[in-house]
Amino acid sequence: MSIFRWAFFLLLAGCAGWVRTDLLFGRCKPRPAGAAQCPLVSDEEWQQFVDREIAPRFSEGFSVVTSEGEWKGSDGIVREPSKILIVLHHRDPSVSKKLDEIRDAYKKQFQQDAVMRVDICAHVAF
Q: What is the pTM (predicted TM-score) of this model?
């Protein structure tokens, strides 16, 4: 197990019960030379990704939120359409592995440098 996974579990050791994990997916693909704007991961491409990579791993449920991201790049402020995957789960190494597999698949398929992951303790009631 990597040092990052150990750090994740140590960080969340204080979570009794539920963890909320958000994965933030930028939708800009690499910009071709001379292009004014980046090509986007289309709605169809996104849905295919959800159907192939996310739904099979989290068949018990998840949420996806459409958002606008902003971050500082080498050329200044970058704004891009984004998707946020929200998964509520119990602290478990197999869940962490599934989330990292999703991140890796997105980075590979859409030539992304990163997919941000945020883990927080959650109080959940149904």
A: 0.85
